[in-house]
Amino acid sequence: MKISSLDTRRSARLAQAMLCLDDFEPKAKRHLPKPLYGYISGGSETNASLRNNLDAFQAYAFRPRILQDVSKRSTETTLFGQTYTAPFGIAPMGISALMAYRGDIVLAAGAAQVGIPMIMSGSSLIRLEEVVAAAPATWFQAYLPGEPERIDALVDRVAAAGFGTLLLTVDTATLPNRENNIRAGFSTPLRPSLALAWQGVSHPQWTIGTFLRTIARHGIPHFENSYATRGAPIIASNVTRDFGRRDHLNWSHLERIRNRWNGKLIVKGILHPDDAARAAETGADGVIVSNHGGRQLDGAISPLAALPEIVERLGDRIPIMIDGGFRRGTDIIKALALGARFVFVGRPFLYAAAVAGLPGVLRAADILKSELHSNMALLGVTTIEQISRGHLVPA
């Protein structure tokens, strides 16, 4: 992935000007065509779950300890036997390569450079083999294709590529009502129109640097990883078939994958303690408490609100992770205090990649890690493991 030194310097300057993760979003809103920004930023229906995810952090306040020697504090943590520089990673996000040139590779390479995990989305426009070759520690997130023979083939493909961690997103029984996408002009498949053409003309930096550059070097983007074989191009009328036939999926499919997959197996999209317990019983190595960033069932409970009951039910049986609305180091600390082992952050990293490429991803990770490091000192702890429920009180 060759990038001119001028572009690199510009991206680095832009990234360094960002002071917090929220600073990337208005930049991305101006940089991206309206349909693409709308696709990233929106949730389903009334955006109730999207708002709940952000508001949930306000339910807790900190009770710090003072006069603790915190001079040797560290944000390092261990998950599945792997040591990471911080207890957060990059969540899976679809069609990232439309937002940033080679977006999935940029996100994966940035995570690898920082020393945190990145989860590649099953609705990526870049072949999973290319991403894992660029960043071997990347995790892969799959949307189950439905038919048993296709499930087997996809699992075998992921294993053959060299992924060590497979993550199943299980809260997509059907396509949600994302009317916000339609209002913003986004559709699947992408349909050429005068309005879409104007968005390209009015956003030349994205058009030249991401869209035309992708077309020239890699052709029309396809959904590359829905099955073991190549999926449909993003402009194909039959593209929605790549996301169908999931309403009959059940626990037997998870059992089938567990029996076939030898690596770490994570289940993402859990909000009920009974489901968390059953995932563990079925052989999952970990769960991610998630409502899909507010993009599936509108009005679903926020992951942070669901977390305490799930932690109480599972205890230390398997690692409990979480995503949804995380923007600050203090947000991460609240989740860790409530019993999460690890946090995943999505939209801010994609905004960062869109506006500043790899330097943006590195800057976003550095901001979050620096906030966490400072917040630990102010809380009075030196290790991630010392963060506990006693550090929180109801707000």
UniProtKB/TrEMBL annotation:
FMN hydroxy acid dehydrogenase domain residues: 13-395
Record-listed glyoxylate binding positions: 39, 143, 178, 292, 295
GO cellular component: plasma membrane
Molecular function GO labels: FMN binding; L-lactate dehydrogenase (NAD+) activity
Record-linked CDD domains: alpha_hydroxyacid_oxid_FMN
Required cofactor names: FMN
Keyword annotations from UniProtKB, A to Z: Flavoprotein, FMN, Oxidoreductase, Plasmid
Positions of the catalytic residues: 292 (proton acceptor)
Keyword Magnesium in annotation: no
Database matches in InterPro entries: Aldolase_TIM, Alpha-hydoxy_acid_DH_FMN, FMN-dep_DH, FMN_HAD, FMN_hydac_DH_AS
Gene3D superfamilies named among the record's database cross-references: Aldolase class I (3.20.20.70)
GO biological process: aerobic respiration
Binding-site residues, FMN: 92-94, 121, 141, 169, 268, 290, 323-327, 346-347
Highest taxon listed in the record's lineage: Bacteria
Similarity comment: Belongs to the FMN-dependent alpha-hydroxy acid dehydrogenase family.
Protein name (Swiss-Prot/TrEMBL): Alpha-hydroxy-acid oxidizing protein
Natural source organism: Rhizobium acidisoli
Lineage: Bacteria, Pseudomonadati, Pseudomonadota, Alphaproteobacteria, Hyphomicrobiales
